[in-house]
Every structure is written in C-alpha cells, then in structure tokens.
Amino acid sequence: MTAYGRETIGLDPNAGATLxxxxxxxxxxxxMTDLLVQVVxxxxxxxxxxxxxxxxxxxxxxxxxxxxxVAAHAALDAYAEHGEGCDAIYLACFGDPGLFALRELxxxxxxxxxxxxxxxxxxxxxxxxxxTGGERWGPILNEFVAMLGLGDRLAAVETxxxxxxxxxxxxxxxxxxxxxxxxxxxxxxxxxAVILGGAGLAGLAARVQPHVDIPVLCSVxxxxxxxxxxxxxxxxxxxxxxxxxxxxxxxxxxxxxxxRLLARL
Length: 265
Fold this sequence. Notes:
By secondary structure, the chain is of the alpha/beta class. It contains 10 helices and 8 strands. The strands form 2 sheets. A 4-stranded parallel β-sheet has the order 2-1-3-4, with helices on both faces. Strand 3 (88-91), helix 3 and strand 4 (110-112) form a beta-alpha-beta unit. The two termini are 21 Å apart.
C-alpha cells in the first residue's frame, strides 16, 4: 500500500475543499463515459465530484489484448491531461489497462475497477466468477486474476457473445442473458458470488440479482466503493508512487501533457 503524506481525507462536506475524482474511461465512446457518470454519481457523498475523461484515441470499446494495450496509453494520456488537482483516480474499465503505470506516475490513490471487484468478490465467497461480454475476455481475465494472486479463488470467466458495448446499447434485452450466465456458473462451477464486469454492464447487477441465488456485484459500483474507501482511510498525497519513479526520459510523438509528465519524473 502507498504511504501518503497529508492528513487522512475525510468525506465530511463541512471539512473543507471538494474532493475531485478523476474517472478515466479509456474506451473512446463518450456515451460510455456518460453511463459511468450516471451510475457512479449517486454513490458519491457530498463534497466529492467527478472529473470524467474519455480516451482520446483507440478502440471504441476494448474487446481484445491489442485494444487493451492502446487503452493503457490512452489512460496515461488522460491522466496527464486531466489529473492535476485530483485526489484519486478511478480507472473505470474492466481489465484495468494501464493500472500499474498510473500508480507509478500518480501521487494519489489509483483504483482499478477489475482489481477492486475481484477483491470484493473474494471477500464475499470462497470462489467467485466473472460474467462479461465479449468472448476474447476469457483468457485475458484468467491471467489478470492470477496476477492478483486470486487465481485459485476464480471459479470461471463466463463470457456472453454480445460485447459490453452491445449490452450498453440494449440493457433491457440483456438481463435474461446475463442472469442465465450467472446461474450457469453458480451451478456448474460452484461460484458463490459473481461479478458483472465491464463499463457497458454498469448498473445492471441490481436488475440481474432477483434472478440469481448468489450475490451479483456491479464492477462499476464496487470500484466506486473502493475509491471512496481509499479517500476516507488513506492519506492523500504521496511523496512518490507505489514504485520507485523511473528516470526522466525524452519522448517522441506523445501528447504534450504526457511528454511533460514523463520528462519531469
């Protein structure tokens, strides 16, 4: 865990300055950012506000390893452009592209949606599953969960054919499909909790839950709770990131804010 330098942040609206949370959507769909803001905002206490940022380049919706690599760059670019003065960063994209690089650069808490959701699910059940859209996500998420040290707790990654973007465009038509996937992994794989993973599935867990006998977690809402916990319980500004900062380097072809950020490390 990072040790930060200031007093612990309180969420009391009478305590002082407004808390600013940079919400990064490294997908390039502004409507996906709008959905995230719509789902996250009701969970924010008074005295906290979102600074939403959409990926400036890359895939409209991440559904492959190659798109994820580009999205990691887009996440760093968004932080360099919009991160000044923010008290926390919420990487609101399942798979957390660029998470550890952001933690290397940022001097505030950085929360990844997928990492936070997996830890929350593991706290609820001995074994958990992930349900998400897009068939290529299966091996990617298996590797990601193993990297978190939770591989033996993952019952399955259950993918459905529609991508997260498809589900976001037709949430009403996706509830039955998602509920069936949750029931299937509970019965077949012994999952005791399931994560609905992905920005495109934001807010749907509450609608799926009545059709499923095990806890269903919304990755977006779970990540939001982790951001607020970090703000409430962790001091605010570190002397350095989670890792030793690398030496400053010259760059070619990057946005001016990102090039300046890397140059002053």
